[in-house]
Amino acid sequence: MAHRREWALDESLWGKSRGLDPGLPPYPLVRHLLDSAAMALFLWDNFLSSSQRSCIAAGLDLAGEPKRVRRLVGLCAGLHDIGKISGFQFCEARAEGWLSDELMRDRGKIGVDDVAHDLAGMKAAPAVLRALGFGNELSSGAAVSRVAEIVGGHHGRFYRPDPLAVSSAREALLGGKAWALQREAHAAAVFDAVGAPELPMKFSAAAAVLVTGVVILADWLVSQEHYLRSRQRRLGPLQGHFGKSLRDAECLAREAGLMPVALERKGFCEAYDIAGKPNALQRSIAEELPTAVGARQPGRRARGGILLVTAAPGDGKSEAALEAERVLSGGFGTRGFAFLLPTMATSDQMHGRVAGVLARQGAGGAGLTLTHSMAWLSKAYADDDLVAGPRVMVCDGLENSTRAEGYQALMRPRWWLRGPKRPLLAQYTVGTVDQALMAVLPVRHNALRMLALSGKTFIVDEAHAYDPYMQVLLGRLLCWLGAYGVPVVLMSATLPMSVSDRLIKEYLKGAGCKQSEERSFSAPYPGWLYVDAETAECTVISDALREEQAAERRMDLKVDQVPVVHGSCGGARDRLAVIERLADPIVSGSGGCMLVVCNTVGNAQATYTWLKERYEDRGLSRSDLQILHARFPGDVREARTQMVTAGLGRLGPRPERRIIVATQVVEQSLDLDADLVVSDLAPLALLLQRAGRCWRHETWWAGQGRPQGRSRPDWAVVTGPRLVVLDPLLDGGGVPRQWGEVYPEFLLAETSKALSELPRATVAIPGDVQDLVERVHGDRPELFHWDDPVRSEQWSAYVGKGLAERSVGGALVIPRPRGVRQLHQLHHLQGTEDEWDAATRLGADSVRLLCVYQQPDGTLTLDVGGDQELPQPGEDGRWAVKDVRRLMGKTIPVRAGWFSGERERCQPPTAWADHPMLSELLVLAQPVCDGQPQPVTVGRRQMWLDEELGLVRQ
Fold first, then answer.
1. Backbone angles phi and psi of 552, in degrees to 5
2. Whole-angstrom Cα distance, residue 370 to residue 275?
3. What confidence tens digit (pLDDT) does each residue in 533-589 have?
4. Checking phi first, is residue 709 left (phi over 0); if not, alpha (psi -120 to 50) or beta?
5. Residue predicted with more confidence, 614 or 407
6. Do the two domains 276-375+423-549 and 555-765 of this chain adopt the same fold?
7. CA 462 – CA 453 distance, rounded (Å)
8. Is residue 841 pLDDT above 80, yes or no?
9. Range list of β-strands (E), 485-587
10. Lowest-confidence range among 411-425, 436-450, 460-474?
11. Mean of all residue pLDDT scores within the chain
12. 566 contacts: CB under 8 Å, gap ≥ 6
């Protein structure tokens, strides 16, 4: 390394000012750089998992030199704000007033062109590193460029390198010679503090993404207002500052909830609160998976692996996945897990289950977060966990951090983890898969999301629930996780082999496993398949345990395919009349529980209304007939979901009779057991999911006893498990107009045909499941035939839509890790894409609607009676958390297109305009006349909120 010049540090250059004591000098930049470097070193030692440290070291070709890698990570964090020695110093008049005369006299061309400090840092980094002695040899030139990219990306967006970055004309924009010398002096202070690091000969993009995540996290932690104000008042000599920063780092990380907690691993039944013993699937994971994971050759680096678990609904896949996490984390050095599901409702339910699992294993101090767009409304967080906490002072705007009963009270996250973009950083997190998919979309801070995921075991439930667009995103994420050696668990009851094969190959491609290219990966059903990331070697559940699992869950499901007509002219085939006949034994006979699953909310509302009118005078109460769909206000939907799952769950109390009318919200992860399931025709995989709610707990009850000792009704015992499919396509019918494009016509037609050809009109579960899924949903040869134009048209539309969705996904998603040469490729779209602009689901453009009531005097209230006026902010303009939560809890997600041309008259009150969430709401003001709310015309439809039916749109 070349000799380095020594220059006196000028502490008038400031790093933080906003929110600090105006009577004191701003917080010096050099101290903020040292704080960040110290925090990065602490995070390396304590927050990163051993797998993350190994992955970064391998990406620098320094697998055997962890201390050298540690010092380099500290240097990157310490240089992150070096670009603030630029025009940034003049962005606040008060702070500018503290600058030294020498700097003021040598401003160069500062002000001629506005250069953001992160971009300025990237431009200045090569010269700064040369002054430290780097970049003069070809061996370190690539690493210099990579460090510059990391410095430029510390606010979450990577920039395209500028070939003119080091030209004298460009340097003049960053100030004169005095400014350049101060950049060198500040960098030298960091360089010496972290132990004089050396640059490597290699610095892969994948490793750089993780280092950027560490830099961002370190910066955020030491940029908290309370920390900075305390440091500002007690600066002390610069010589001892770095040591104090190192000592303070643990307290900051612990306050933030980032310190990992080791579980007290308990036995299977105790850990997962299971009566009796684990089933064969769960036992096979506990007994056989460790051998597969531990089969690596001595001395070979752990590269991860992917586990696919396939089993029918109700087979305990969630507990099997958590047990697999125990095995995989131990084998690959990850710490904690991300448990991701398709919907907010299923995430909320799983969060409570995971909280119990962790609490029973002594992890009460660990961070467990719920992560989805409306997670803060969950009862997992109390109101006083959500009041505003200390702010993180970052220069792209103030990030308002927020402080974040039973097991959930023990496991609620620290307040810091409730801040924007942070929940995935918790050691344990449960949420929607969308939160993870944003890591592979070109949005700000995708590097931070990648850091959060790369140290955990990654679990995806209901892997079948994603359309072709989301499968592209999921596949790309698995590719990155494969590169990081992250163990992955995929779970599904109805996943086509073609899809699982593509996902597994994406993971192996990321891991660099060339042996997978000519192979095909198929999992037994039920059971599991484990694929090693290094060799693509496969291990499957043993035949004995697979057969035992199949026997435990074996059930012959009777499928009655009934032709129906939608509308009032169907006669005996009228859909509602058919449902009434099916319900009659429950209402008039020996009782029982029936689940009716409708394809649209409108169908569900019409079905509920019909049954209520027919049976109200025969003693059918409101608790006997219930409706559940996604168009209820959030607080109402949550209460209804809990009522439904409690009544039809494993432990009861099971009602004597109940009819549940629902939509697709019951397909995934809701624990329901019905004596009879009636369903509108849907794609076969979804019908099987719905059928999974039929006699779901029969095997368990046979061994453990039934809730309240109540047996199934006589009519159900005679028929056995039964799925009735209301099929409008039978006998030449068509897809009902009111279904719209809910499901592809091709899949509906193929499902109808497959059901009509079932031997004995019976599905043997689990034996027939995979073959049926493959027949309808699997890859197949060309189906275009001139002699069958209708089917050919359906097939072409279905294939075309899938190709279009995959094309959109491929255009948006970031490149595979080995395809990234420069980090700006992770933000390849024009402009600065923020997360609210990112589409993790196609066609999911929605808004949140608040239904209120306009009283005769014009007052808007939350209730029909007019007693609950709309909450307003206080005199200081601030909102009480309880009021915001109350309002948001009454909102309903609806399609944005419904309000095309109507948004202006549906705007929220003016006083809400400054609130980031309330200002985005649409408000439906329903006039109250003679004590009754009246419909509102929106577009060509009438809309109103009905207490029983939810939001009605006709």
1. -65, -35
2. 27
3. 999 999 999 999 999 999 988 999 999 999 999 987 767 899 999 999 999 999 988
4. left
5. 614
6. yes
7. 19
8. no
9. 488-492, 527-532, 538-540, 555-563
10. 411-425
11. 88
12. 575, 728, 736, 737, 738
Q: Give ∠ CA 929-932-936 in degrees, rounded to 5.
A: 75
Residue burial 444-481, b: 16+ Cβ < 10 Å; e: rest: bbbbbbbbbbbbbbbbbbbbbbbebbbbbbbbbbbbbb
Residue 449 has pLDDT above 50, yes or no: yes
Rg (CA), the chain: 30
Using alpha carbons, select from 106, 242, 109 the residue that is nearest to residue 169. Answer: 109
Please give, one letter per residue, the 3-state secondary structure of 597-647. Answer: ECCCHHHHHHHHHHHHHHHHHHCCCCCCEEEECCCCCHHHHHHHHHHHHHH
pLDDT score of 753: 95
Look at residues 658, 699, 694 and name the one whose alpha carbon lies nearest to residue 679.
694
Using the structure block, give the residue that is written with the tokens 């036995």: 267
* C-alpha–C-alpha distance, residues 467 and 256, integer Å: 36
Cα three-residue angle 302-306-310, rounded to 5 degrees: 150
Query: Which structure tokens are listed for 631?
Result: 């168009």
CATH architecture designation of domain 27-255:
Orthogonal Bundle (1.10)
Check residue 153 and report its DSSP letter.
T
Please say if the pLDDT value at position 838 is more than 70.
no
Give the C-alpha separation, 854 to 815, whole Å: 52
Mention every residue, 6+ apart, whose C-beta is less than 8 A from residue 170.
123, 162, 164
- 497 neighbors 778 (Cβ within 8 angstroms): yes
Which amino acid is it at 286? A
Closest CA to 688 of 462, 370, 451, 862: 462
In sequence order, the 6+-apart residues with CB closer than 8 A to the CB of 552 are 279, 280, 699
**Three-state helix/strand/coil letters over 310-342:** ECCCCCCHHHHHHHHHHHHHHHHCCCCEEEEEC
CB 817 within 8 A of CB 483: yes
Helix, strand, coil share (%) of the chain residues, nearest 5: 45, 15, 40
Residue 537's pLDDT is 92
Lowest mean pLDDT among 12-21, 62-71, 262-271, 412-421: 412-421
CATH (one of 3.40.50.880, 3.40.1190.20, 3.10.20.740, 3.40.50.300) for 276-375+423-549:
3.40.50.300
CATH class of 555-765: alpha beta
Tokens of 525: 């059903």
Pick from 877, 480, 559, 548: nearest CA to 699: 548
Q: How far apart are CA 197 and CA 76, in angstroms?
A: 10
Pairing outcome for strands 922-929 and 932-933? antiparallel
pLDDT over 90 (residue 168): no
Q: Which pLDDT belongs to residue 834?
A: 58
- 255 three-class SS: helix
Domain-wise residue ranges, the chain: 27-255, 276-375+423-549, 555-765, 780-813, 846-953
Show the tokens assigned to 180: 């350049």
User: Which phi and psi angles does 799 have, rounded to 5°?
Assistant: -65, -40
> What is the helix (H) or strand (E) element at residue 148, kind and residue range?
helix 138-152
Helix (H) or strand (E) holding 809: helix 789-812
Distance of CA 256 to the CA centre of its chain: 21
What are the C-alpha distances in Å from 66 to residues 53, 56, 59, 192, 234? 8, 9, 12, 18, 34
Q: Which residues contact 371 (CB under 8 A, 6 or more apart)?
A: 347, 423, 424, 429, 430, 431, 432, 435
Alpha-carbon distance of 21 to 512, in angstroms, equals: 52
Residue 771 structure tokens: 């073959």
- Among 12, 4, 185, 182, smallest CA distance to 98 is for 12
739 SS3 class: helix
